[in-house]
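Re: beginner question about structure tokens

> Can someone show what the tokenized structure looks like for a real chain? I only ever see the sequence side.

Sure, here's an example I had lying around. Input first:
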Amino acid sequence: MSRSLRVAVQMDPLESVNIDGDSTFAMMLEAQARGYELWVYPVTTLSLVEGQGRGGRVQARARRVEVRRERGNHATFGEEQVLDLGQTDVILMRQDPPFDMGYITATHMLEHVHGVGEGRSLVVNDPVAVRNAPEKLLVTHFPHLMPPTLVTWDTREILAFREKYHDLIVKPLFGNGGAGIFRIKPDDENLGALLEMHFARSREPLMIQRYEPAVRQGDKRIILVDGEPIGAINRVPATGEARSNMHVGGRAMSVELTARDREICESIGPYLREHGLIFTGIDVIGNWLTEINVTSPTGLQELDRFDGINSAGLIWDAIEGRVLASE
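And the corresponding structure tokens:
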């Protein structure tokens, strides 16, 4: 790299992250090791300034930060100040979902500064692509890779789907970390009540998928950098739990990529690369792709421990390549 990068990280509070598992923290450690200038800010301080003839168009109340792998003392912050995001080189959009109107609005604001040239910054991932690709819907553009799936508000369609496939997974479309995901077995009498509760509280449709028994052997998280797989971890559900997410007790294990995994990556890789989705994580159960995570994918530190690689370094290599190519 010919020069240091000025990096702004849009994230949930850094003070409360798990430094042994958080992927954003791993990326920040690697950025600092490369001599980058690091800033951090919460999305709630983001501002789009128009018609006032001052400063940059997109600003945030940010703090300089130094990070270290030291529990209870992992970050030292400078004074908060207004940062013109157009004067940074890279913005990492790393706040967790839910993918709600606040999240969508942030992508619209960052779209004004994303790009190359004066007053522009490379946003990772591309905010337009993130907005157009909520993870549980992006996957539907690759139906040949998916298990049987239904996205609908129509309870009659859901009941017909159940009649056909019997054993179901019911998911909210825009959540994360396994929140709100239910398995409905063939003899479960709670589906009607679950649908009533969801639609009384939300205007959003549900995603219904055929339950895949292979999940008992694990839900594979494959990390892709610029559309190319760099490795995978297997997340095995805890006893008595249908969900494999590590937020709800899933256990991470080492795993190799299969021929089917590579076929899936080859199918979706060009789309990810062409749309500026540099850091993504896909979920594969058995032979089926179930999600493409583009908002705030996780798994880097677990992957590094199992495979002995520097996954954050590979991501920064890809980012540096894009920045250099624009200069």
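Each token stands for a local structural state, so reading them left to right follows the chain. DSSP finds nine helices and 17 strands in the chain.
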